Amino acid sequence: MGSHWGEGSGAIDVWGWNGTEARLSEVRRDAQGYYFIHSLLTAGHSRWVGSLFRFTRKDGRSGVAQALYSYSGALTPPKPIGQPTSYPVAATFTANKRARPTPRILAAARPTKADLTYLQSISDEFQEMEVEDLATLTDLDLRAKAIDDDGMVHLRGLKQLRTLSLRETRVGDAGLENLAALTSLRNLDLIRTPLTDAGLETVSRLTGLNQLNIDTTLVTVSGLRALRKLRWLNMLTLHTTDVGDAGLAVLKDLPELSYLDIGKDPAFESERITEAGLKLLKTFPSLDKLMLGWLKIGDNGLAQLRGMSKLYWLELTSTDISDAGLVHLQTLPELRQLELEQTRITDAGLVHLKSIPKLKYLFLGHSDIGDAAMAQLAPLKNLEVLAVTKGNVTDAGLAHLRGLTQLDRLFLPDNKITGAGVANLQRMTRLNQLNLYYNKLDNASLDVLKALPELGQLYISGDQITDAGLVHLKALKNLRYLHISWTKATQAGIDNLKKSLPNLQVHFGDH
Q1: Which of 266, 385, 433, 475 could share a disulfide with 457, CB 3.0–4.6 Å?
Q2: Does residue 291 lie in a domain region?
Q3: What's the domain count of the chain?
Q4: Is 91 part of any domain?
């Protein structure tokens, strides 16, 4: 079971709870005052699905119950680019599609006795509620490895369901037969399930599907032919699925397909996508977002994409692209987002990006990128997101970026920037997210950040940062998340900062 309760504007939310196993004494409260019960994090099982929805959102004092629209069996908050971070998985209910915060830290603070009494009263009222009582449910995320085909029978009555995730469950071909009547379904996630060609044939009967994720499944090229029935499909992820050139020949007949992920896990043995297959991509009528990460393609492969006039998002992470290959990008007039992490490019190759004036999102790093590369990026005045992870950027390189005043997110973790270099950021007044993790920051550099009024998320480290430096952050009235590690700051300094920024969520520690 899982639940999300609230009462008026002062909502009480419970994250991830299994009433058959958890006791109220297990309830914990996170840094924002939201509640969760940890026992569900051990994953559920198929008998669990039938009783998953025994609770709904209800104002216990007024007796008014509100319709429950969404359940998520797992939530992994987004990690900052270039910052390896793991978070606990928690179950989440969402009522009335209202926005919910993303818990970054599940703290160990216990709720009050009054809180526990309130939660107990709600659970008593809804012990008999089952999944079939929630006919208005539109979004469902079940992410527990022990859920299998037996649990799917409980979903047959969810006729208004539009989004369903069975990611990382054991639901296979037989279980998917239970979805046949869910004709409102638009988004289906079957990543890392035992789906085969037979199951994909069943899925193809859901002709209203817009998005389908079948990464890391047992589907073959033969099975992909069933997708031709999905005339409205606009997003398809096949990462680490056995596609090959023959599979691409099948997919080119999908008239609305705009997003395609055919990247590979490097350890996965499959049919290779060759230059001939890449050339086929030019015949896809609506394709404008293409993910090719970890494919064994080089400069000649990239040349096959020349002239794709609609392409605006291209991911080439961990490919064999070099400086010479980047010249082909100049033939992509609508390119807005480009991902080149872990490639063979150097500073010199980025000169070719000057001819892509519409570029807004650029991801580099884990390659030979330094100050000269930053000079090549200076003319890209429309950049809104720039990430250079684990590079060789110094204060001098950061100076080249001063004119990029449209930047909303800047990620420069694990470079060679010092406190003095941070002064180059002062004109970037639109910055909302800034990651300077694993650089050599100091207290003075935090004082400079006062010039960034829109800053909402900040990631910093540096053994010269102390409590005195944290005081400067009090001026950042929009700061809502701070990740601070490997400093000389103390918990007392954090507490002092939160007095001025009571809504600030802080990750504090040496990791």
Answers
A1: 433
A2: no
A3: 1
A4: yes
Q: Average pLDDT over the chain, rounded to whole?
A: 78
Query: Do the domain assignments include residue 228?
Result: no
Beta bridge partners of 291: 261, 315
Residue among 354, 342, 285 at smallest CA distance from 316:
342
Mean pLDDT of 435-456: 96
> Which of 229, 271, 265 is closest to 248 using CA atoms?
271
The identity of residue 56, as a single letter, is: T
CB atoms within 10 A of CB 496: 14
Q: Give residue 271's pLDDT band: very low, low, confident or very high (50, 70, 90).
A: low
The Cα–Cα gap between 175 and 153 comes to: 8
Map 147-190 to HEC letters: CEHHHHHHHCCCCCCCEEECCCCECCHHHHHHHCCCCCCCEEEC
Question: Once rounded to an integer, what is the mean pLDDT over residues 342-347?
Answer: 96
Compute the distance between CA of residue 73 and CA of residue 254 in angstroms, rounded to an integer.
31
**Token pair of 370, please?**
């330094």
Question: 223 in the Ramachandran plot: left (φ > 0), alpha (ψ -120 to 50) or beta?
Answer: alpha
pTM above 0.90, yes or no: no
Average pLDDT over residues 465-486: 97
- Angle CA(48)–CA(75)–CA(436) in degrees, nearest 5? 160
Question: Identity (one letter) of the amino acid at 241?
Answer: T
Judge whether 92 and 100 are in contact, CB under 8 Å: yes
Exposure of 380 in the CB half-sphere (CA atoms within 13 A) = 28
Residue 21 CB burial class (10 angstroms; 0-12, 13-18, ≥19): middle
Q: Which amino acid would we find at residue 394? A: T
pLDDT in tens, 173-187: 999 999 999 999 999
**Token match 């009480």: residue?**
12
Nearest residue to 445 via CA among 412, 475, 418, 413: 418
Q: What is the pLDDT of residues 70-107, one digit of tens each?
A: 333 332 322 222 322 222 222 333 332 233 333 222 22
Tell me how crowded residue 23 is: count the other CB atoms within 10 A of its CB. Answer: 10
The 8-class DSSP code of residue 343 comes to S
Whether 77 is covered by a domain: the verdict is yes
Instruction: Tell me the residue range of the domain where 104 lies.
Output: 14-130
Angstrom distance (rounded) from CA 50 to CA 330 = 54
pLDDT at site 68:
32
